[in-house]
Amino acid sequence: MRNEMMYRPIINEDILHYLRTEQKQLAGSLGDLEELAHENGVPVIPHETVVFLQFLLKQKQPKNVLEIGTAIGFSASLMAESLGKDAKITTIDRFPVMIEKAKKNFAKLGLEDQVTLLEGEAADLLSNLEGPYDFIFMDSAKSKYITFLPECLRLLSDDGVLMVDDIFQAGTVLQPIEEIPRKNRAIHRKLNEFLEVVTKSPELTSTLLPLGDGVALISKNK
What superkingdom does the record give (predicted)? Predict the structure, then answer.
């Protein structure tokens, strides 16, 4: 199903085009996967977020990574290839169609030993994980971010980073709820609740970036 939020830029379109076309492109099979996803409208992270994530991982060098929302396995594969064989990626998804595609992509990229795919509801699986994880990437149902946040913080190492994708709902997250289509109001409320917590909690440090549909970086205050 076409995701309308993928096609509503939140920054100047000329700048967006530059970020997506002029920054270093991915090579090999991973680059082919990214291109195929964009051609078919599959909701993977946009290229400006790809480049940022590569940079962040290079600086942080996490060894134990958790992802919530596997989709076709693109971002998990990106993290695995960026970090090398010493890093282990655990990724969670509940949709059988996506799980099957992700497994095929992990096999094609030779990442089966590096990436562990957990199948099922994140709400159930997260409580059974022990961690700690040096880096957590959450890109799942937007209305569930606030629900998953406590478990993510429990699993996050003291100096770890939680990165959350798609937080601005195509730039509509700050609009009055009366202006939001009824089908999107639950997401609107939950995203606002999530943003209130991560930006105001004295226990957290966070920054928000206009990459893709918005990215939040969150760490725990020691």
Answer: Bacteria
Is 37 annotated to bind ligand?
no
Closest CA to 88 of 107, 116, 60: 116
Confirm or deny that 166 is annotated as ligand binding.
no
Torsion sign, CA atoms 217, 2, 103, 33: negative
72 annotated as belonging to a binding site for a ligand:
no
Side-chain-side CA neighbours of residue 138 (13 Å): 29
> CA dist 159 to 198, 218, 222, Å?
16, 10, 8
139 annotated as belonging to a binding site for a ligand: yes
**pLDDT by residue (tens digit) across 30-75?**
999 999 998 888 889 999 999 999 999 999 999 999 999 999 999 9
Element (H, E) at 106: helix 96-108
Phi, psi of 47 (to 5 degrees): -65, -30
Burial 63-94 (b: 16+ CB within 10 A, else e): ebbbbbbbbbbbbbbbbbbbbeeebbbbbbbb
122 labelled binding-site residue? yes
State pTM to two decimals: 0.94
